[in-house]
Every structure is written in C-alpha cells, then in structure tokens.
Design a protein that fits this description.
The protein is an alpha/beta fold. The chain contains 13 helices and twelve strands. The protein has two domains: 234 residues, Aspartate Aminotransferase, domain 2 (3-Layer(aba) Sandwich), CATH 3.40.640.10; 128 residues, Aspartate Aminotransferase, domain 1 (Alpha-Beta Complex). Helix 4 links the parallel strand 2 and strand 3. The longest helix is centred in the N-terminal third of the chain and has 22 residues.
C-alpha cells in the first residue's frame, strides 16, 4: 500500500503552485511583507465568502480567539464557557487573558457543545460562551442566543468550519467568530495565520487596533495591544486557495459519503460509531472522526496498526481540556464530562482531504477492518 496521509498538503499545493509563485513575486517586488494590498484583498474576499461585513487577518487562530474575546469585553476574572472536548487553544486563549475557562459537556451523537449543559454553567460572572464548530460542522448557536442574558457574548470558534453553515447561517453572521488558517485546515496557509470575522464595525476596529500594538495609525496607540498581523505572503496563499474552497468542501462531502457507505457494515456490527451531522448543518468535513467499541488503549493500538501500514490516522483529541495537566487547576476530574471523556477514549480520525480517491478510501477501510481484528 502506498502511504495515505491524514492530510495531503502536497496535493493541495500543486493546485495553486503557479498562483502562489506569481503572488510571492508581487510581494517580493513590492516588499509589502506585513499588511499591504494582498492582506486587504484577502480580508475583503474572505468576508464576502463568509457572508459577513468585516474580516481582520491576524497571525494565528489562537490570537484570533484571544482578540475576539477581548473585543467582546472579556477581562481578568471573567468566566468563559466552552466545551470540554476542544483543542487546547480554545481554553488557552481564555487563560491568557486572565479569565476562567468553565467547561461544559458535548452532545453524545454529534460531539458538539450541548447548549443546555453550557447554559447550566452560566453565572453572574459569565462574560462569554464559546461554542466550537467541531470537525467541520456548526454548533447550535441559536439555542444559546435564545436563552443567554444580554450581558453574555457569544463568540464562535470556527477554526475547523470554513464554509460550514447551520440553517443557512455561517459563523460570525450577526456576531463574532475566530478562525484558523493553520496549514491543515480546509483553508490553510503555509504557516500560521488566522482571522476574526464579524458584522460589528466597532468590534472589528477594536480587533484591528489590538492586533497592531493598540492602534491603526503609526505611533498612535489608543489601547494596550500586541503584535498579531497577517503576513502578505500568507495572504497570497489564502487568496489562491479561497477560490477553490467551495469546490474542496464539496469534494470532502463526497469523500465522507463514501466512507459512510464503506463503513456501514462495521457500524451495523457495532464495531464503529460513524460521525453524525446535525439537522440543518452543511458539513465541510475538516475531519472524519469515527469511534471504536473499546478502550483508549485499544484505540491507540488500532491507530498504531494503521500508521504502521501506511495509513495516516490520528486522534483529535486524546484528552478533554480538564484532563490535561495545563488545566488540572480547574479542579475537574474524570467523570465530570462523561460524553467528552468517552469520545476522547474511543475516537480516531481517518484520512480525508479534497484530493483523496475512492481507491485510497477503500484501502483505508480495508486496513481499519484488519486493525480492528
């Protein structure tokens, strides 16, 4: 078997190589390495794609989360509600401000944030709730906004959901969202990059100022900010890839449907739980995550066999936030978030990217069947 990567960045680059090379030549000729027209053009184009009024490009997705949190007024000692099953950056951005992450469990089928569990954690100290659009589909923000007090902001973590929608609404419309353009994302740069999207001009202006040392005019600093700016070279890459994003997302959906069909027998036999798409969601399949019937040790053994056989399987993510050493201080223990914990013990991600072929997927499923024994 030829190696089948979890994500094929070489194939993605091949599709845009000529455009990227020409764009790099423009940057090198004009020396607009930070900011400049390429960044401004990408911000306009991504805002249009996402259906929002404003996009502010920043250095990475974690900064995007922190900047958006600051823009909605989160400060030292405030509580921010987020799912227990998310990448550590969601909680890390909260902690970096000096705010307190408050965790809530996920739904057992989609693994998206459970709206009622999140609402049950809201206290007078809560300043924001951060639903994570996990694996390529949107959490139920409508259920949250319908019951959240006006003083509590909703900030969407859309790092894995570029182009996804729920009931016709993409992330950030009517509110604010942070996204990541890490290379492996559906829209990936050639290094770290991120953005904040919003329909609110005041929040957009504040994010832009905070990310540029506290101001948008040279040597005028209106607030205490820091340095988190999108590079022109990364904007070139993102512009080239953005024109192909809708087509790539459609290809991901087709590949996910093939996996559904190929894995149906294992699911019917109780060997696997297949991913579930929530009603109203247009999924963009950043990851295709299945759950095995077994322990974390058994899951790790399956992943090891797949990797040894040339299949780039992975685990997203092996530990919920409260079971990481970084956030042991939250005082939560195993058993506090049972759905997130069970998912973390059993899940594994299969190779999925726009260029994956039906033959490669058949090889992945054959290898998985053998690994399950």
């Amino acid at each position: 078997m030829n190696h089948i990567p979890l994500v094929d960045l070489k194939a993605a680059h091949a599709e845009v190589a000529d455009e990227v090379r020409a764009g790099f030549d423009r940057i090198l000729a004009g020396t607009a390495f930070v900011g400049g027209e390429e960044v401004a053009a990408f911000e306009r184009e991504y805002a249009a794609f996402a259906g929002v009024d404003h996009c502010v490009g920043v250095a990475n997705g974690t900064d995007a989360l922190e900047l958006a949190l600051r823009a909605v007024g989160v400060g030292i000692g405030d509580e921010v509600v987020l799912p227990a099953n998310t990448f550590i950056a969601t909680a890390g951005a909260v902690a970096r401000i000096g705010a307190v992450p408050v965790l809530a469990d996920c739904l057992p089928d989609t693994l998206l944030l459970d709206p009622q569990a999140a609402l049950d954690t809201v206290t007078p100290r809560t300043r924001a709730v951060v639903p994570v659009h996990l694996y390529g589909q949107c959490a139920d923000t409508a259920a949250l906004t319908a019951q959240l007090p006006d003083r509590v902001a909703l900030l969407e973590d859309a790092a894995q959901s570029q182009g996804a929608s729920r009931d016709g609404r993409q992330a950030g419309r009517g509110g604010i969202a942070a996204t990541s353009f890490y290379p492996g994302k559906n829209l990936g740069a050639y290094g770290d990059a991120g953005a904040v999207v919003t329909d609110d001009p005041e929040r957009a202006a504040l994010v832009r100022a905070l990310a540029n040392h506290g101001g948008t005019v040279k040597y005028r600093h209106d607030v205490a900010g820091f340095n988190s700016r999108l590079d022109g070279l990364q904007a070139v890459v993102l512009r080239a890839k953005l024109t192909r994003l809708a087509e790539g997302n459609a290809a991901r959906r087709a590949a996910a449907a093939r996996y559904h069909d190929l894995l149906a027998g294992l699911a019917a036999a109780g060997r696997l739980v297949l991913p579930v798409t929530a009603e109203g969601n247009v999924h963009v399949w950043h990851l295709y995550v299945v759950r095995i019937d077994g322990t974390s040790a058994q899951r790790d053994a399956v992943v090891g066999k797949l990797n040894a056989g040339g299949v780039g399987a992975g685990v997203h993510y092996p530990a919920p936030v409260h079971l990481t050493e970084a956030f042991a201080g939250l005082g939560k223990v195993r058993g506090d978030f049972p759905h997130a914990e069970q998912a973390a013990d059993r899940m594994l991600s299969l190779p999925l990217y726009p260029q994956i072929t039906a033959d490669q997927q058949q090889q992945v499923v054959a290898a998985l069947t053998d690994a399950l024994g």
